[in-house]
């Protein structure tokens, strides 16, 4: 009498279905929680020392200022380019002209403490759309 002896070979295939299920569950969790993470909370930011914005020493930076009333001004080096307030479209045109004449010039934003955050962000967006590769913020040491 011959015994039926089958040899079982080791299985070399990996069952990935459980891993796909876990991945899909994690994807759904991240998709649901991501919009919740985008909401802000009102906080008082601390005053800290920071590293300076890299500006070419040979070229004076272009400074775009916004005062407490929301008026915009341009300064190039020690001279003020505009004593009269500008609107955002005029700021964009002026920044484009300055960057066309002086490519690679640093652009800095000086914002008043009492200006709303959205106004400064809009200003930074206009400056970047005008062609500035990077925009730095001017702050005071504590």
Automatic annotation (TrEMBL):
InterPro entries: ExbD, Tol-Pal_TolR. One of its GO terms (molecular function) is transmembrane transporter activity. Keywords: Cell cycle, Cell division, Cell inner membrane, Cell membrane, Membrane, Transmembrane, Transmembrane helix. Its main location: membrane. The keyword Transmembrane applies. It is found in: Cell inner membrane; Cell membrane. It is a single-pass membrane protein. One of its GO terms (biological process) is cell division. Belongs to the ExbD/TolR family. The Tol-Pal system is composed of five core proteins: the inner membrane proteins TolA, TolQ and TolR, the periplasmic protein TolB and the outer membrane protein Pal. They form a network linking the inner and outer membranes and the peptidoglycan layer. PANTHER family: EXBD MEMBRANE COMPONENT OF PMF-DRIVEN MACROMOLECULE IMPORT SYSTEM (PTHR30558), TOL-PAL SYSTEM PROTEIN TOLR (PTHR30558:SF7). This is Tol-Pal system protein TolR. It comes from Oleiphilus messinensis.
């Amino acid at each position: 009498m011959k015994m039926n002896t089958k040899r079982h070979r080791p299985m070399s295939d990996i069952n990935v279905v459980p891993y796909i299920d876990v991945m899909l569950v994690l994807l759904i969790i991240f998709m649901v929680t991501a919009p919740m993470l985008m909401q802000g909370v009102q906080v008082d930011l601390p005053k800290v020392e920071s590293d300076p914005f890299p500006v070419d020493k040979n070229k004076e930076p272009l400074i775009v200022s916004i005062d407490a009333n929301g008026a915009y001004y341009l300064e190039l080096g020690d001279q003020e380019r505009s004593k009269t307030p500008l609107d955002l479209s005029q700021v964009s045109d002026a920044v484009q002209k300055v960057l066309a004449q002086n490519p690679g010039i640093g652009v800095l934003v000086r914002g008043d403490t009492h200006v709303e955050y959205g106004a400064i962000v809009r200003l930074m967006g206009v400056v970047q759309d005008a062609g500035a590769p990077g925009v730095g913020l001017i702050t005071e040491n504590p």
